[in-house]
Here is the input.
Amino acid sequence: MSSSYGGTSAFDRLRARLDGRPHVCEECGRVDDEGEWEAATTGATVEYRRECPSCGTEHVHRYRL
Ligand SMILES: [Zn+2]
Here is the structure.
């Protein structure tokens, strides 16, 4: 069984929420307002990842679709 979301509106909404403000790394304190979140979905959830350009820490936000 598969389902379709009929577009990327949920993706776009969540991405806009994340991209709308600078990301602050809690490890090194770097403020990164230029990086992009990389989206991946399993079907039920979507994950946004980004790596701190300064210390390499990976940050993940996970949402239910
Ligand atoms: Zn960092």
